[in-house]
Amino acid sequence: MSDEVSERLLGEARALLDANRRTGISPWEGRPFDYTCPSPGSYIFQWFWDSCFHAIALCHLDVERAAAELLSLLQGAQPNGFIPHIIFWQPDPAVMARQTLRLAGPYMSASVQPPVLALAVERVYRAGAGEEFRRRALPPTRAFFDWLAAHRDPDCDALLAIVQPDESGVDADPKYDALLHLRAQNNAALVASINRIYDAYRPLGNDDARILAADVFVVEDLVYNSIYAQGLQALARLVAPAEAAVYEGRAARVRDALIAQCWDEERGLFWSLLGQAETPARVNSISSLFPLIIEGLDRRIVDRLVREHLLNPNEYWLPYPLPSVAATEPTFNLDHPHGFIWRGPTWVNSNWFLSTALRRLGYLDAARHITRRTQELILRHGFYECFNPYTGQGQNARNFSWSTLVIDMPTG
Ligand code: GLC
Q1: Most ligand 1 atoms within 8 A of CB, residue of 20, 35, 37, 43 to mutate
Q2: How many CB atoms are closer than 10 A to CB 22?
């Protein structure tokens, strides 16, 4: 990246993250908070994986603030290890009523999001947040990973299950359509389907075992499990050397299970597994490429994913890569961004995940190309939530904080 581009992006990222910073004392329990809201117009609370992305971007700007972002999130950690996907530091009933939510209490949701936390803690620690930060952040992070293993793997196959679409962070991904019995290709139909799930869960309280047993929406999800395995690998690097092997072993089990259960040798893609029947969701979305972020994936599988799909101009290698769904899919849809997202547009977080993986895997030109095109998106259009992969036009939320991840994408 030229110095000029890099300076401009750093300046714009700083301005956005400053504008979206929220600090204060919560009206409940009087707790101090310091987090970045995902987008002032659309998402005003603290979201789990968004905060992890913000902290990673903040490593380039203000390490103390990056640490504060994660420590605010970790205040949501419950005694049993659970961490909610949203904390409502300043609850706003009108805004909350507009969202489809399952609550664990007045101040937090009852759902999870992909555990980017371990990687974020590692990055912030290595950026210089200090031993005190590690001492405070590591125990609740480990406890969350233990909670996931204990509560979200009922069939003990090492793959975690999510119980509603937004737990994967890629809520409207068409891979869920069959399980959701989506009645039409629009946001209203999606919201209706999600509400049907919540209705089914209501009599079950927030008991994960009963919810999983009800088999209404159980998905062994590729985004969730790839980030879980990557997080276990980050934990192995963060804990005392004597404990590292435990996390390495757990990560290897997840990786092996993904290959054994989700890899389709014929198509050269991974599929998420739907329901207790574990039916492969044969929809070619960006999720199918996510196992690339796990270290130690078989080289043959890596090369097939990259050469046959990621670099394929009919699927993902569009003018502004990487679209959230392969352009060859019938559900590939650029026309309904509002709420009906993750169905075609390009996102900065998936570009960050996959360009970082490509660089580690030696696909340097591809990694650099994705970075350059993402920089162009931001510099020409601004920090949108997602972008049209043909025209670059920004879509959905504006001033979207995690799009600042562009400053952490590989340039070398
Ligand atoms: C949307 C995204 C989700 C994100 C949230 C807040 O719901 O799909 O991944 O966490 O917005 O930005």
Answers
A1: 43
A2: 16
